[in-house]
Amino acid sequence: MKTLNFRVILFAFALIFGVVFSIPSLTQSESGKKITLGLDLQGGLHMLLGIKSEIAIESRIKSMAASVKYIFDDEEIIFDDLRMIDGEKITFELLDTDEVTKAQALLKKELEGTVVINNGMKFSVTMTEAEVERTKQNAIQQAVDTIRNRLNEFGLAEPTVAKQGEDKILVEVPGIKTQEDEQRIRELIARAAHLQLMAVDEDRNIRVNTMSLAEAKSYGDVILPDVNTGEKYLLRAIPVLDGSMLTDAKVGFDESNQPVINFTLNGQGAKIFGDFTGVSVGKRMAVVLDNKVYSAPVINERIGGGRVQISGRFEISEAHDLAIALRSGALLAPVYVMEKRSVGPSLGADSIKASSIALVLGFILVVIFMVVYYGMAGIIANVALIGNLFLILAIMSLFGATLTLPGMAGIVLTVGMAVDANVIISERIRELLYEGKSVAKSIENGYSNAFTAIWDANVTTLIAATVLYAYGTGAIKGFALTMSIGIMASMLTAIVGTHGIYQWLLPKIDKNKLRLWFGIRTEGVK
Amino acid sequence: MEIFKYKKPLSLMSKSKRFGLLSVTLLILSLGLIIGKGFNYGIDFAGGTLIQVQYNGKAPIEKVREAIDSDRSYEGATVTFFGGEDEVVIRTKTSSKALGVDVGDQIRALLQDTGNFEVRRVDMVGAKVGSELREKGLMAMVLAIIGILIYVSFRFEWRFAVASVMALMHDVTIAMGMIVLFNVEVNLDILAALLTILGYSLNDTIIVFDRIREGIRTIKDPDLGGIIDESVTRTLSRTTLTSLTTFFVVLTLYLFGGEIINGFSFTLLVGVIVGTYSSIFVASPILMWLGFSVGGFREKEAEKLKREKEKEKMRAMYENGTL
Question: Which residue of A lies nearest to B143 if distances are taken between CA atoms?
């Protein structure tokens, strides 16, 4: 027998490589890279979130207003009529002509990315277009990070949070068992966790129950309800400070052993808070979370040190989730669900079972058919087919690719199509044998004749698959990936591998036993 | 074992008019169905919510219907058995707007008194996502076709490219027609199946075209029809065989793959059949109909060969130092 040739060696390597790297996936062992099962196969929650970035712009404007107020108060510049208009700009009026230049310089220094226009003492501040765009991008990136932090803190196995397209967020959480967990996760994600400390407009609060929203707005106020009692408060629309100055949030307990949330402010926040409480003794300050008032205690004295507490008759799990949300930061803009898919674990298991049965049955059918039709040539093709399957698994494992239900169907289909190359080659060899060529020549020419056809057909299919991968979403991407890997693997196994095996076995192939080797009758040969 | 043993070319081209008529009829019927009746878009594309519920025992479908109908916001919801008799699928046009309010939770609450059940799947897709997915799918299809046109034109000739794309559209259109006819719900997986047909049909056609290209070079027949007849006959055995193995596999997927991929495997079944038919009977006649000239192709090929030989000569001269 001829010594082993490079093709057989290459094929053997590919086979070993395939087997070794598909073992972790097949046995689902802990170690080693393996294929991740898609949510449709293992069960879990998949959500595509949209983001209302216009809200981020609005709150940016709001915090600009808060800054203006703080800076001018600090520098003792007297101003009046500070307003936000249509969530697009802020306007105010200075009272002293001498301070216009000073105000301009201060605003320029303190407010980045804005355009300040003043007509005499009337000022208007808007954001530059670049700043608007940056704020939007920032809002989505921040939402991705925040949601990821929250899910990680919640302690779930491997959640995926990723930006998708320009303005969407993909969240995938595998292995959710109960409806309650799912709901808690949804709430944790959705929680804006927008914390604001707001002054109560004590002068007018007495009329809050008869006041219209428009009237409140004309005073620069907002009306917000209490989370537990539903009682209404009239609050200054521009907050004293907001959650961006928060450094930590923890669950604690008050005297009556009720859960509360303690949070700590950073240096700037602590200073603002200290100054504000210093001048507002005897007045109330509302702790507002996501536009609901949690508590509105009367300020008894100046509070330094930057420690604040929210009490609000929480359930312990609620307090826990809220602390996570506060700690991970507020969402600059609210998110909403565009798409949600949740698959129970039992359905995923059923899907795996059904498609595995199909895969195994289809595989056996093809294997038997090839042997019956081609004899030894069929067996050689089957060896390539098995090698192909292992290679697909191995490559997918190494990429950490996700196997979805359509992906499994893609593998099933690959089994059907992978024998194609060997069918083409075997048919070519048969043709040449019928023409009376020698076995060696038939094999060599059979391969070279078949090659261009296989190559062109595969490349065109690969082009289609690549486009699908680039443009497809989720399931289609998975499908395109398995198909592409299958095509490339079959080039190696079905063309190079089988060719090598033929060359290796050549001395054994007897022209009088063509029926055994190629499934054709020797009598038909010229 | 052999199914077709090559003896002499089948006279396929002489019958091409009949197959052309059959294909055109099928195409018109399919387009009529697609335009007239339209696709039954599932929630992936139309938006809405789908809830799959498995009961312990036979599902009380009437009770489920009543329960769903009791809430007016789910008007027009449909309840159907799914796979066996223990599972039902509820489809509504409503989809959650806020994260807090979830259609799945609400329906679960409505079903509370209908028996012992487990919610196996909740899919909710907003209408906006649906139209985006549709656009992206279409875009992928168009780009794939352009890519194929370029590659095949480059490797063969533009008429081969146009013919293969026409054959491919023929197959996909007929498969779409069957989807409408059998009222298969069109979701992302159906789109994936249609795209697979695209790949499969292309594969089949290119193999035949490759043989025709080879035939033009080796067969001394000046008549394209004769070359096509011989080439198609010679690849017939391969075409049938590969189609058979693929058909077996897809059939097992259809029979044993479970209800969830039924639509997917049905579409593939149709695709394999139509794809095989078109690569034998449709693609090559289009090539002829487009006015492909054997003489012209041979001349071009000869010129290409001449240029290559000249290059070779120059290189040889260069290497020998005579240039």
Answer: A467
Question: CA A188 → CA A11, A47, A320, A329, A413, distances in Å?
Answer: 51, 13, 10, 12, 41
Asked if residue B323 has pLDDT above 70, the reply is: no
Number of helices (H), then strands (E), belonging to chain A: the values are: 16, 19
Average pLDDT for B261-284: 92
Rounded (to 5) percent helix, strand, coil in chain A? 60, 20, 20
Question: How far apart (Å, rounded) are the C-alpha atoms in residues A414 and A412?
Answer: 5
A481 has pLDDT over 70 = yes
Nearest Cα to Cα of residue A254 among A317, A310, A174: A310
pLDDT-based confidence at residue B96 (cuts at 50, 70, 90): low
pTM for this prediction: 0.78
Length of chain B measured in residues: 323
So what's the pLDDT on residue A526? 63
- Under DSSP, the state recorded for A99 is G
pLDDT in tens, A229-239: 888 899 988 88
Q: Are A308 and A263 in contact (CB under 8 A)?
A: yes
pLDDT at B162 over 60: yes
Q: Do B140 and A524 touch (CB under 8 A)?
A: no
Mutate to test the interface with A, among B125, B164, B241, B269 (most CBs of A within 10 A): B241
- By Cβ distance, the residue of A341, A416, A468 closest to B140 is A468
Tell me: pLDDT of B99 over 60: no
Calpha distance B320→B312 (Å, rounded): 12
Q: Cβ contact (<8 Å) for B140 and A467?
A: yes
Q: Which of B121, B124, B264 sits opposite A339 (nearest CB)?
A: B124
Q: Do B124 and A472 touch (CB under 8 A)?
A: no
CB contact under 8 A, B199 and A483: yes
Residue A487 CA: distances (Å) to CA of A2, A378, A385, A408, A470: 30, 19, 12, 15, 17
CB contact under 8 A, A340 and B234: no
Query: Considering only A45-59, A400-414, B156-170, B189-203, which range has the smallest mean pLDDT?
Result: A400-414
A178-190 pLDDT per residue, tens: 777 888 888 888 7
Range with lowest mean pLDDT among A52-66, A435-449, B126-140: B126-140
- Give the pLDDT of residue A498: 93
Within 8 A by CB and 6+ apart from A61, the residues are: A84, A87, A88, A89, A90, A127
Exposure string of B55-70, with b = 16+ CB inside 10 Å and e = fewer, is beeebbeeebbebbee
Say whether pLDDT at A510 is over 70: yes
Tell me how far apart the alpha carbons of residues B54 and B116 are, in angstroms, rounded to a whole number.
9
Over pLDDT 90: what percentage of chain A? Answer: 13
- CA of B164: which chain A residue's CA is closest? A460
Closest by Cβ to A336, choosing from B1, B98, B247: B98
> Cβ contacts (< 8 Å) between A456 and chain B: which residues?
152, 155-156, 206, 210
A63 compared with B216, residue with greater pLDDT: B216
Q: Do A417 and B203 touch (CB under 8 A)?
A: yes
As a residue count, chain A comes to 526
From CA A524, how far away is CA A516, in angstroms rounded? 14
What is the identity of the amino acid at A76?
E
Å between B302 CA and nearest CA of chain A: 19
Considering only CB atoms, B2 lies closest to which of A454, A474, A520, namely: A520
What is d(CA B302, CA A503) in angstroms, rounded to the nearest whole number?
34
Question: B124 vs chain A: nearest CA distance in angstroms?
Answer: 5
Name the nearest CA neighbour of B20 among B202, B231, B283, B198.
Answer: B283
Determine the residue type at A287: V
Task: Evaluate if residue B97 carries a pLDDT over 70.
Answer: no
Candidate from A342, A406, A457 with C-beta closest to B206: A457
Instruction: For residue A23, give the 3-state DSSP assignment.
Output: helix
| Average pLDDT of every residue of chain A | 84
